[in-house]
Amino acid sequence: MSVYTIAEITIKDEDAYKEYQAKVPATIAQYGGRYLVRGGEVTTGEGGWNPGRIVILEFPDVEALQKWATSPEYAPVAEIRHRAADTKSFIVQGV
Fold first, then answer.
1. d(CA 92, CA 80)
2. What span, in angstroms and rounded, lies between the C-alpha atoms of 48 and 42?
3. Three-class SS string for 39-58?
4. What are the tens digits of pLDDT across the range 25-37?
5. Sign of the CA dihedral 37, 84, 87, 8?
6. How do residues 46-80 score in pLDDT, each as one tens digit?
7. Angle value at C-alpha 54, between 7 and 3, nearest 5 degrees
8. Do 27 and 71 contact (CB within 8 A), yes or no?
9. 3-state DSSP call for residue 13?
């Protein structure tokens, strides 16, 4: 069953985040993931949630997602993101 990770990202360092954006897609693809949403205009709906940037990734299953998130390929790229942005995220299984 497909699994999705949904993240709200607040960028603190534009240059470092651009470096992250250049490096992360290859690591995602390597583990069978793909982008469904990568930024774009956000329109506020119910509840008043108004995130500045949303990213949604799809992976074939939770195991693939976890392998990517803990992989040696992603670890140095994740360090860049931790410096460049504050992130809130969650994982949900799809139908």
1. 25
2. 12
3. CCCCCCCHHHCCCCCEEEEE
4. 999 999 999 999 9
5. negative
6. 998 888 899 999 999 999 999 999 999 999 999 99
7. 50
8. yes
9. coil
Q: Where are the alpha helices (DSSP H) in the chain?
A: 14-30, 62-69, 75-84
Sign for the CA dihedral angle at 17, 22, 26, 32 comes to positive
Contact 16, 63 (CB under 8 A): no
| Domains present along the chain, CATH in parentheses | 3-93 (3.30.70.100)
Q: Closest Cα to residue 11, out of 53, 70, 61, 69?
A: 53
